[in-house]
Amino acid sequence: ILAQARLFLDRWIPFSCAAEQHTQVAAMSATQGGAHPQGVAHGLSSSAEDPVNVRPSMKLNKALSSTGLTGTKSKKKNHRSGCCGFCKPKPPIEEVDCVLIGGGIMSATVGLMLKDLEPTWKINMYERLGSLAEESSNGWNNAGTGHSALCEPNYTPSSGPGEVEIAKAVTVNEQWQLSRQYWAYLKEQGLISDEFISVTPHMTFAYGEDQVQWLQARYKCLHKHPLFKGMQYTDNRAELMKWAPVMMEGRDLSDKVALTRVDYGTDCDFGALTRDLGKAFMQKGGNLLLFHTVTALKREKDGKWLLTVAKNDLGAKTAQIRTKFVFVGAGGWALLLLQKSHIPEARGFMGFPISGEFLVCQNPAVVDKHPSKCYGKAAIGAPPMSVPHLDKRLIGGKHMLLFGPFAGFSPRYLKTGSLLDLFKSIRPHNLIPAAAAGLQNLDLTIYLVKQLLATDNMKFQELLQFIPAAKPEDWLKVTAGQRVQIMKKDPKKIGILQFGTEVVSAADGSICGLLGASPGASTAVQVALDVLCKCYSKDGTFDKWIPSIKKMIKSYGTKLSDNPALADELHEWSAKVLGIK
User: Residue 515's closest CA among 534, 499, 494, 530?
Assistant: First the structure.
């Protein structure tokens, strides 16, 4: 009797519920949809009878999958499931020609160049986060300056009364010209857009008698150079007001100030550029893998590298990749990965992480008065990358002003890294060079401590030197990216602190990594060429590539400083293609 009653109820209740639901739905249909008052009111709030709130009972559904996700009962398969997924069989080793670690502008540039030069090569790029350019290449994590030494004081140090040294400035500008040409080539090929770069005049700011004299000497040495044509200088108040009204309004008439200006400077959203390069890399057959973390590197007897990659899949959680060449473009983590490779060339290197902070203004009344990037001289004891600058920026289509950077400290080597990064990098072979570098740069330590102790009011006082009429409510603080300053062995000083970029590669060229920071993304093309030359010259491969490289970069192999006519021609061509000056 009970069984028959249960059978009756199981058949009758669903039918009864369905009939009742049909009646309710029919009644509701009169108030559903449209812009009439009843439809609008119903759209703003749903009742228990709304179809989206009605579901069949799970007790009555005997065909659910084991997870309840689908309406089909799961079929058991005879396969080795492992213990909690960690004992599952590992997939076979994947064979590739090249592996790029990191999804920043360096890896994207090297990868795209290699796909152009060797279309048949199998190249994998591994990024641990969910998108390209999430760390140093991100627009919020760098200055966005097209570093061409047009305005940066640290590339033109004083060499005596009325004299400055311009060799570094010329070198940086030469490297920048290669980047412009390569990006213009990619734009002509339809591989990238020109939205990442915009015309933003570059200015250098001098405050006080000493700085003004230095700026005059800098202008005298640079304005006639072929790569710095068009540089202007002024200390005239009326002219200064035209060039930088937001910096001159409210300024004391007794202040001794001067500016140089170059109209064809640029602002670059390197995050947008990196994503364009990544798309082009995949378009040409490159394989980009997100949420993949390279955890180990091991050199095999035949000279190839076996990489272990962690990924949160439903299988063994890891994969192994065998490759002939590894490029480590993982930002601050490049040092940790090079140490894991155990190549002797990485011995003696250590990194000191420095975080940054910018003040950001989004008030159009202020932003519109400063359409330029303006760099001042760094404070005594400050690292070269900490020169104060007031920048017009365009990030994600939003115009704003950024001022800074202010230094901070975090033991992380990446913004999304681990608090143990600094401690993981400590090795017996790098302790003495690091200690020697630290003792030689105690003034930098003092500077960092002062920056860490600086209050909001102190930071605002720094801003007032650039914008005397600034209002605190217009400026908010934003944390920028992490930078890792390199300390390395030195035969004379035991250990030194390096502020530039360092390319570290194995003797056989099978692995290469990029350490350091400035000038960074602006010279990515030069760095990529250096990497390829260093790693593929021994077997003659690089020499075979040179004709193709000259198609991508027209001045490759030529010093533009010695060929003003070619410099002008290529500058005009790249400006036209990229829509800049």
Answer: 499
Separation CA 433–CA 48 (nearest Å): 71
pLDDT at 354: 87
pLDDT of residue 493: 94
- Burial-class residue 200 by CB neighbours within 10 Å (0-12, 13-18, 19+): buried
Question: Which pLDDT score, from 0 to 100, does residue 61 have?
Answer: 63
Q: Where are the alpha helices (DSSP H) in 311-393?
A: 334-341, 364-367
Of 431, 436, 439, the residue nearest 495 (C-alpha): 436
Structure tokens at 484: 């890792």
Q: What is the largest CA-CA distance in the chain?
A: 111
Q: CA 1 to CA 528: how far, in whole Å?
A: 83
Tokens 């420095």 sit on residue: 354
CA proximity to 543, closest of 533, 558, 553: 533
CB 438 within 8 A of CB 350: no
Instruction: Quote the CA–CA distance of 319 and 124 in Å, as a whole number.
Output: 13
Residue 117 burial class via C-beta count within 10 angstroms: exposed 0-12, middle 13-18, buried 19 and up: middle
What are the beta bridge partners of residue 321? Answer: 94, 307
Q: How many residues does the chain have?
A: 581
Token pair 């396969």 is at which residue?
Answer: 79
In contact, 149 and 492? CB cutoff 8 Å: no
Predicted structure pTM score: 0.88
Instruction: From 400, 395, 393, select the one nearest 364 (Cα to Cα).
Output: 400
Q: How far apart are CA 429 and CA 35, in angstroms?
A: 74
In this structure, is the dihedral angle defined by the CA atoms of residues 438, 441, 446 and 448, taken in order, positive or negative?
negative
| pLDDT at residue number 15 | 47
> What was the pLDDT predicted at 42?
65
Distance CA 391, CA 386 (A): 14
Q: Cβ neighbours of residue 357 under 8 Å, at least 6 residues apart?
A: 404, 405, 406, 407, 408, 477, 478, 479, 480
The alpha carbon of residue 194 and the mean position of all alpha carbons in its chain are separated, in whole angstroms, by 18
Q: Residues of 26-35 as b/e, b for ≥16 C-beta within 10 angstroms? A: eeeeeeeeee
Q: How far apart are the first and last CA of the chain?
A: 92
Tokens of 281: 């890399």
Q: At CB < 8 A and 24+ separation, what contacts does 460-463 make?
A: 462/388, 462/406, 463/359, 463/403
The answer to whether the CB of 264 falls within 8 A of the CB of 230 is yes
Beta bridge partners of 320: 308
Q: Which of 132-145 are b and which e, b meaning 16 or more Cβ less than 10 Å from the residue's Cβ?
A: bbbbbbbbbbbbbb
Compute mean pLDDT per 10 residues along the chain, 581 residues long, and list them: 59 51 54 66 71 70 67 64 66 96 96 98 97 90 86 91 92 96 98 95 95 96 95 97 96 95 95 96 98 96 96 91 96 94 95 91 96 88 76 91 91 93 95 93 84 92 96 94 90 88 92 82 93 94 97 96 96 96 88
* Pairing mode of beta strands 123-127, 287-290: parallel
Q: What is the DSSP letter of 71?
A: S
Please tell me whether residue 278 adopts helix, strand or coil conformation: helix
Rounded CA separation 526/535 (Å): 14
